[in-house]
Every structure is written in structure tokens, then in C-alpha cells.
From TrEMBL:
Composition bias type Polar residues, residue spans: 1-15
Source species of the chain: Aphis craccivora
Keywords: Nucleotidyltransferase, RNA-directed DNA polymerase, Transferase
Organismal lineage: Eukaryota, Metazoa, Ecdysozoa, Arthropoda, Hexapoda
Protein name as catalogued: Reverse transcriptase domain-containing protein
The organism's place on the tree of life at top rank: Eukaryota
PROSITE patterns: RT_POL
Residue ranges, annotated region (Disordered): 1-30
Record flagged with keyword Nucleotidyltransferase: yes
Length: 962
């Protein structure tokens, strides 16, 4: 065997086995190199073909196995479905055999049915009328004639023609009672209907006696996942007293004809119809399964948030834009929220149905909605409503009448209370003599934007403003101001909520009438007041300041305040509007100054001005719950004027004594300055690689539980002298209040502890009460805005975390010494950090741990642990569409571009810009979220003003609005 010089091509030489000489052989057989190459290439091709064949066989085998698995699963599904269908067929066969085996004669139900048809035909022209008094005549003919006359009179009032022929038959005697009886009409019923009704009443009595409660009739049923198709008729559903509206899944609406489907069943007692859908070239696609969104509501409307970017932000924005709430929080069996309920009112109660009409779906729990509504087409007409027309009063005669008294002598010879009573008696006498009294009939009211009244008002305001700008005449400005005030009054009216519901409850005590509801509010507000106690001795350690002993102001100050009441037509508890006082300012300035001066010098606040009405103000939650309201005092204009003059006199001295940590109700301070100090401290801590622990406190009914004795003692220690100290004590004690609800007033309640919410002096007095809060702390810092307090401190290690706890304990003891108590359930801690391993520490009050939050709403600003503005931007971009929708609804017929701009810049723009000195978008997506709001307004403005703009080009509409 030898190797050839040719690379990779071996050759063989055959030698004779018997010869050993080197002589070449005589004969040899040789194979050419090209033939060998061809053979080897063929072998290689065969090897590759074999490998390819093996791989293709493996792929084909794998594909066959996968297809076989799919076919097996489909076969299993078909087998299951076939088994279900077999059971259904067996059930139908059983029911069919049961029907066929029925031995009841067919003539029996047929005869009953024909009898019912005949009886209903005879009853359809009959009307049963209850409440018709017995006729006074004795003979039968006269009785029938008298009954016919009474019925004809009633029918004529109902605008039913008098030409209708009818017969009268009295089937029962009139119920003789002293109580008024309403006239009621009912249709005549057949014997079978009466029998069915009796059976229903008996069944109701039986179930009630067995302990069942809250038995109701479902007037509207909404079923999802019905799995119906066109082969099922409405009559097969068993809802005979309902109008059925269906939307079944089919190949026309989906890529499948199985599953899905919705039914809306409305009782026939209510008139209902399907709203026709206009043929618009518009398609709306919504993906409702958005688990990353957390839904909530506030007083402004729908709120939503997400820990991640919302995949479809336009979906919640649309509902917020239209002023809707999402009220369902019932999760399915998998802990998810799939069913969303959007409504424009919070007066809908959502509960899990305890008696579902169908089998409960695992993904869609059966939900019961209860909503109280007035089914009348219009509110009732209430005649004989009187009011004083102050606009057409004879002010010249009133002025002469009031000037006819010697007020200086009257006030000098009487006490403070008697002087005030005499003066107000004269004012009310002049009103009765010289102010016309008008009778008004309340008519049904409709939404104002359905009329042209507002359009005319806007044009008048615009024209008056143009006229004033040209002439600069004071009279023209007065006309413009009047229309401007009417314009904003309209906006505020439509922006406000619908008020207190007609049915409210307090701890299970329900009320459906105004008088009882007002008393429930009075009972709740009175329950929060506390009895006075003796001040603690440690209050004497307070610092002393140079504070005034009296308040001084001039007659000119009184005149200027009366002048500021111009155009103010609101009525106080005394029934005197502000504009009435303005028009008599020349006559009233001097007597009022004398009265105020006498009150201050004597140290007695007049009892007449202590009486005020309370307005229930919804804090949060269900508006039908009395517990969710807090009282706001509605004071008279004279009382507000007196308090304002006193405040202006003493405020410069008091401001210098307030601690720097107090940012509420003082000039130069606000929620912005408070949060600016706080956020700056946190940023400085981040620069030092430290975290900040903040403890947020909340007091129980703090304004309603201010102890008068403690407050007066604090004012004395701070340096207030006599007589103003006695005047403050008289101002706080023996105040009487009542709740006015629509046309009813509650019982009068006397305040044992309180600084009146809504009063002018209350914020200043409360600021002085808590002015010593910072002095009790040793380590942590504190910031205060009115009654909102937060302690905060830098935390470098676990030992540092113990220091805020010790200061919190001191703050609790301090608050208890002031007879104030912390609401532990609402106190919480928030840590601010930018590290991966923050220091965790549990803070407590009276050994009760307070909660730990990952985000907080602090004075209107939303904070995250790393101070990212993302959550705050989400919130303002959630709130802004609500007001944009409000603007769209009330200005749908506006033609003036300035009206839209004014509304946007007054209602929406402040939300987007408020506290912008604290937060600033860090990312482009955050900037785009804000820009989306403004672009929505520009699109709406372009549509309203009929301005055609190219896509994403707003120059034309911006020019029109500028």
C-alpha cells in the first residue's frame, strides 16, 4: 500500500506473490483517478440524502404527534359536549313524556282561557276609583247623578274630554275618616287576576312571617353571558312582565356564535324603548379587562390610578370626561374586577345579590343595584311661596324711617343685647313696610343649558364689557359686572352637586321627610360636642406676646365693608341680603359702628349674632349617610362684618406671635409654602443619602371639640387683655344653631364646644390654640396647616427611628392636655427614600401601631416615596377631564370664543398649574399626559367655533382664542 502524490486520491499497485525481484511486472490492472472521484461524490450525496430523509421524518413525526394531541383534545371536548347534549335530550324526553302522560282534559284549560279573554274584554273599559265621598242625596237616582258630577269634575281637571259617556256604580262605602283621602284610579281586574294577587299577598305574608326581610321586586334585570341565540324566543325566558332587550352573540358581531350575550329586562310598569343608534361612520372599540387600573371616586367625580402605565388611557378619560362614577367594587371568585358600573350619581347602592335569578358565574358575580328615583314627570307645583322683593324696595322711605330714631341715646341707655334687638327690630319693621312681598309659584325646572337664556346672557356680558372698555364709564362697568356675576353664578350652579338626598339615615334611623332629616343632622352634629373642663396647669408656661386688649376701627371701615356687599343677594339667618345693607350704607354705617363699639368696650358679643344656621357639607362617602357630613355655619352679613373688622384690627399683632411652622390662614403662607418646605427638606436628605420618616396626624372632630375654657386660658397667657378677652369668651359660649333643610328647620342646638366652621375668627383662634405644638418636640420637625400636622425627621439608622416615636408620644400628651384626641385609624407613617434597602420602623400611638402608606395626598399634592411627580400628574390629568366634560355640557351652545377660554383658564388650567413650583415633569410621557388635556380642549374649541384645523395643528384655534 502506497500513497500517491495526488492529494486525497489513493492508488494501488498489484505485485506477483511469487516474484521477489525488482523487475517490473509483465501485466497490471489500474483504475483512473476521475472514476474514483465520481464514486466518492456519489457516496457523499447518498449520505447527505439519508441524513435529510431522517430529519424530515423526525419533523413529520413531531408534527403528527402535535396534530394528534390537538385532535385528542378536540375529541375530548366534543365528547364532553356530546355528553351534555345527551343529558339535555334525555331531560327533554322526560319532560315530553310527562306532558304526554298528562290526563288533564284539553277542554278545561281552553275554556278557562276563553273565559279569561272574555272577562278581560269586558273589564278593559272599567275604571275603579277610590276616595269619592258618599253623596248627600237620599234617593238612588240623585246619588248616581251626584257621583257622576264628582267624577266629571275630576276628569275635567285631568284634561279628559267631558263628552265621554260613562256609567257609575258604587261598589263599596266611602271610608269615613278625619284624615284626608287621595283620589286614586285603578283598572278593573278579572277574577283570575284577583285570585293571583291574593295568592301573591298570602305568599308575601308567609315569607315575612318566616323571617325573610328586604323582599323587593327587581324592576330592571341585566344578565351577561346569556349564551342565547336566535333560536330562543323571549317567551321562553319566563319574564312575562318585562320588556326584553337582547344582544346575542352571532357571527355578525363576533368570530364565534357561542357564548356571550346580554339581556336587559325592564318591567312593563315603566315606559322603555331602545335608543336608536345613528348611522355614523364611527367605530368604538373598548377593552374592558384592565386589571392595572384602581377605580375610586371623590367629590369631583371618577378617580383612577395605576402602578404602571395605563395601556388605554382614553378609556377611563372618556368616562371621567362625562362626569361619571365607577361604583362597583365587588370582585369575582378569582379576586378580579370584570364588571364596571358607571353612573352620574353616587346614590346607587351596589351589593351582591342574595337571591340571584340565575346560577352565579365564576367570573361575573350577580350584582344587585338599588336606586331611589322620583318617577314624576315634573316636580309638584307648590303655590303661595312668599318672598321679599328687595330689588323694588323703597329705600328712600327705609332710610327716612331708620334716621327717625335717636340711636345714640337708645344704645347708651340699654344693654348690648337690647340695643342690637332694638336696632334689628327697626330694620325688620322697615322691610315689612317698604319692601313688597311677592307670591311665587314654583314651576318645574329644567337644565338651563337646554334654553337660549345663557346664550343671551353671555352676549350681554360681552357687549357690556366692550362698551366699558371703550367708555371707561363707571355705570358701564356696573352693567358688565352684573352680567359677569350672573355668568359665574350659572357656572357654579351647574358645577355643584345635586344636594342632600331625600332619604337619609343615622346609625339605622331612617328619614324620608325634610323635617325629620333636619333633626337627624342636628342630633348628629350635637353629639360631637364635648363638655367644658378646667384647663391644665402646664398651660401657664406659654410665652407672652404684646397682643391687643381691644379692637379699633372707624366708621369709614364700616362703610367700606357695607360697600363691599354690593350685589350680594344671599340671605343670612336674619333674612337680610347683603345688597340691602349696601344700598343703606349711608344710613347704617354710624349705628353699626356705635353697636360694635359698645359690644367691644363692654366685652359682650351680642346674642342676636350668635344664632346661625348650619349647612351639612358632604366630606366623602355615601351622601345618604348623615355621619359623612360636617357642619358649616351660615352667618348673617352683619355678624361677618363685625368679625372681619375685629380680625383686621388684631391680625397684624397676632401674626407676629404665630410659629413659622403654621402655614394656614396667615398672609404669605399657603399649602404651597408648606409643601415647598417639606419637599426641600426631603431633597436635602436624599443628597445626604438619608431617608425621611414622616408621621401624619389626624384629630377627631377638632373644630367641634375645642374646649372654650382652655382656649380662653391660652389667649390670656399669650397676652390678650380686657375687654377683648371677655369679648372672645362671650363670642364662643352659648351659641345656638339649627339646620335648615329645604323648607324645614331642625330643633335648636346649643354648642358646648366649638369654633364655628365658616366663621371669620375661627381659623385665627384655632391657630392660637395649637401654636405651642412645636415647643413640645425635641428631635423631629413639624409642619402645620390649620389642623393638619406632620412630624418628619432624617433617618440614618435604626437608632434614629426611635427619636420620632418619642416626639410623637410628647405630641399625643400635648393634644390630650388641650382636650383634643387623635384619630389613630387615620394617622399613618410614610417613608421617603431612594435606596434599595430602606429602614423599616413601626410607629405607634398608645401602643397601637399606625399604618404605613406607600403614597399620600398631602394638602392636595400626591407624594411617592422617591418624590416622583408621576402620581400627582396622573391625578390632575384624571381630574381635568371631568371639568372639561362639564365645560362641554354647559357651553354646547356658546358662540363666543372668550367664554370657552375663560371657563378653561378658570376651571381647568389652575388644576394643571397648581403647585407647579413643587413638581415638574421629569419624563416626556408625563409632559404628554398634561398636553393631552390641553389638546382635548383645543379640539373641542375648534369644533365649537367651527374652525377647521389640520391634524395636530392647533395654530388657527389658538389664534382665535388669543
Amino acid at each position: 500500500m502506497a500513497n500517491s502524490n495526488n492529494k486525497g486520491t489513493p492508488s494501488m499497485t498489484l505485485r506477483s506473490s511469487s516474484s521477489t525481484s525488482s523487475k517490473p511486472p509483465t501485466k497490471s490492472t489500474s483504475v483512473s483517478a476521475s472514476s474514483v472521484d465520481a464514486i466518492l461524490l456519489a457516496i457523499e450525496d447518498l449520505r447527505k440524502s439519508h441524513e435529510t430523509f431522517i430529519l424530515s421524518n423526525k419533523a413529520l413525526s413531531k408534527e403528527l404527534k402535535s396534530s394528534l394531541a390537538v385532535l385528542t383534545s378536540r375529541f375530548d371536548a366534543l365528547s364532553t359536549e356530546l355528553s351534555v347534549l345527551r343529558n339535555i335530550v334525555v331531560s327533554l324526553d322526560t319532560r315530553l313524556l310527562a306532558l304526554e302522560s298528562c290526563t288533564t282534559s284539553a277542554s278545561t284549560p281552553t275554556s278557562e282561557l276563553l273565559q279569561e279573554f272574555d272577562e278581560r274584554d269586558r273589564c278593559k273599559s272599567n275604571i275603579i276609583e277610590y276616595g269619592i265621598p258618599e253623596p248627600s242625596s237620599s234617593d238612588l237616582a240623585s246619588k248616581i247623578s251626584e257621583d257622576k258630577e264628582k267624577i266629571s269634575s275630576i276628569l275635567s281637571q285631568l284634561n279628559i274630554g267631558s263628552t265621554i259617556e260613562f256609567k257609575v256604580t258604587r261598589i263599596a262605602n266611602f271610608n269615613c275618616s278625619d284624615l284626608p283621602t287621595d283620589v286614586k284610579f285603578f283598572r278593573d281586574k278579572t277574577s283570575l287576576e284577583r285570585k293571583t294577587l291574593r295568592a301573591c299577598h298570602q305568599e308575601l305574608d308567609r315569607r315575612t312571617q318566616n323571617g325573610e326581610a328586604d323582599l323587593t321586586i327587581s324592576y330592571i334585570n341585566v344578565l351577561t353571558e346569556t349564551w342565547l341565540n336566535g333560536s330562543y324566543n323571549n317567551t321562553e325566558l319566563g319574564m312575562f312582565n318585562y320588556n326584553i332587550y337582547r344582544c346575542d352573540r352571532s357571527l355578525l358581531t363576533s368570530n364565534s356564535n357561542r357564548g356571550g350575550g346580554v339581556i336587559i329586562a325592564i318591567r312593563k310598569d315603566f315606559q322603555s324603548f331602545l335608543i336608536p343608534s345613528p348611522n355614523l361612520s364611527l367605530e368604538q372599540l373598548f377593552y374592558f379587562n384592565l386589571p392595572e387600573i384602581t377605580w375610586s371616586n371623590d367629590v369631583h367625580g371618577l378617580s383612577y390610578s395605576s402602578t404602571t402605565n395605563i395601556r388605554h388611557p382614553c378609556f377611563p378619560e372618556k368616562f371621567a370626561f362625562h362626569g361619571l362614577y365607577q361604583i362597583n367594587s365587588i370582585l369575582n371568585s378569582h379576586g378580579s374586577l370584570h364588571d364596571l358600573i358607571f353612573t352620574n350619581t353616587l346614590s346607587v347602592n351596589v351589593n351582591c345579590s342574595i337571591d340571584p335569578p340565575v346560577k352565579c358565574d365564576l367570573y361575573h358575580p350577580v350584582i344587585s343595584l338599588t336606586y331611589e328615583t322620583n318617577l314624576q314627570s315634573s316636580p309638584p307645583v307648590v303655590p303661595n311661596t312668599f318672598f321679599f322683593n328687595f330689588k323694588n324696595a323703597n329705600y328712600e322711605s327705609i332710610s327716612k324711617f331708620l334716621n327717625s330714631f335717636n340711636w345714640l341715646y337708645t344704645f347708651q341707655t340699654n344693654t348690648v343685647d337690647t340695643s342690637f334687638y332694638n336696632f334689628f327690630d327697626a330694620i325688620h319693621s322697615s322691610i315689612l313696610k317698604f319692601v313688597p312681598r311677592v307670591t311665587k309659584t314654583l314651576k318645574p325646572t329644567f337644565q338651563p343649558w337646554f334654553t337660549n337664556e345663557l346664550i343671551e346672557l353671555v352676549f350681554k356680558k360681552h357687549q357690556a364689557h366692550k362698551k366699558f372698555k371703550k367708555s371707561s364709564n363707571l355705570d358701564d362697568y356696573q352693567v358688565f359686572s352684573k352680567y359677569r356675576a350672573h355668568f359665574w353664578k350659572f357656572v357654579r350652579k351647574n358645577k355643584s352637586s345635586s344636594g342632600i338626598p331625600s332619604s337619609v339615615d343615622l346609625n339605622g334611623e331612617f328619614s324620608n321627610c325634610n323635617q325629620e332629616s333636619a333633626n337627624l343632622f342636628a342630633k348628629h352634629f350635637e353629639s360631637v360636642y364635648t363638655l367644658p373642663i378646667t384647663p391644665s396647669s402646664n398651660l401657664t408656661s406659654l410665652p407672652t406676646f404684646y397682643l391687643p386688649s381691644n379692637a379699633y376701627f372707624s366708621v369709614e371701615d364700616v362703610y367700606q365693608h357695607l360697600f363691599s356687599l354690593r350685589g350680594n343677594v344671599s340671605l343670612g339667618p336674619d333674612g337680610i341680603p347683603g345688597d340691602f345693607l349696601f344700598k343703606l350704607r349711608d344710613t347704617l354705617s354710624w349705628p353699626f359702628w356705635l353697636l360694635f363699639r359698645k359690644s367691644l368696650d363692654m366685652g359682650i358679643f351680642p346674642s342676636l349674632l350668635k344664632s346661625s344656621s348650619l349647612i351639612p357639607f358632604l366630606k366623602t362617602g355615601n351622601p345618604s349617610k348623615v355621619m359623612n357630613y360636617r357642619p358649616i355655619a351660615n352667618l348673617s352679613h352683619v355678624s361677618k362684618m363685625f368679625e372681619t373688622l375685629v380680625l383686621r384690627s388684631i391680625q397684624p399683632s397676632v401674626n407676629s406671635s404665630l410659629i413659622e411652622e403654621q402655614h394656614g390662614f396667615r398672609p404669605g403662607s399657603s399649602t404651597v409654602t408648606c409643601n415647598l418646605v417639606f419637599s426641600s427638606f426631603i431633597y436635602d436628605s436624599f443628597a445626604l443619602h438619608a431617608q425621611v420618616d414622616a408621621i401624619y396626624t389626624d384629630f377627631n372632630k377638632v373644630f367641634d371639640r375645642v374646649n372654650h375654657n382652655i382656649l380662653i386660658n391660652i389667649l390670656s397667657n399669650y397676652g390678650f387683655g380686657e375687654p377683648i378677652l371677655s369679648w372672645f369668651s362671650s363670642y364662643l359660649t352659648n351659641r345656638q344653631q339649627y339646620i335648615k333643610l329645604h323648607d324645614s328647620t331642625s330643633i335648636i342646638i346649643t354648642l358646648s364646644s366649638d369654633v364655628p366652621q365658616g366663621a371669620i375668627l375661627s381659623p385665627l383662634l384655632f391657630s392660637l390654640l395649637v401654636n405651642s405644638a412645636a415647643s413640645v418636640l425635641r428631635h423631629a420637625r413639624i409642619l402645620i396647616f390649620a389642623d393638619d400636622m406632620k412630624l418628619f425627621m432624617r433617618i440614618h439608622n435604626e437608632n434614629d427611628a426611635c427619636l420620632p416615636q418619642s416626639d410623637l408620644n410628647r405630641l399625643v400628651l400635648w393634644s390630650e392636655s388641650l382636650s383634643l384626641s387623635l384619630n389613630i385609624s387615620k394617622c399613618f407613617k410614610m417613608s421617603y427614600f431612594r435606596t434599595s434597602s430602606p429602614i423599616a420602623f413601626s410607629y405607634s400611638i398608645h401602643d397601637t401601631p399606625i399604618s404605613n402608606k406607600s403614597s399620600v395626598r398631602d394638602l392636595g399634592f400626591y407624594f411617592l416615596p422617591n418624590l416622583s411627580p408621576r402620581l400627582h400628574i396622573q391625578e390632575i390629568c384624571c381630574k381635568s377631564p371631568k371639568l372639561l366634560g362639564f365645560i362641554k355640557r354647559i357651553s354646547s351652545e356658546f358662540k363666543l370664543d372668550q367664554s370657552l377660554k375663560i371657563l378653561f383658564c378658570s376651571l381647568v388650567r389652575p388644576i394643571l398649574e397648581y403647585r407647579s413650583v413643587i413638581w415638574d415633569p421629569h419624563l416626556s410621557i408625563e409632559t404628554l399626559m398634561i398636553e393631552r388635556v390641553q389638546r382635548k380642549f383645543l379640539l373641542f374649541a375648534a369644533y365649537s367655533l367651527k374652525i377647521h384645523c389640520p391634524l395636530h395643528d392647533y395654530k388657527l384655534v389658538l389664534t382665535a382664542l388669543s
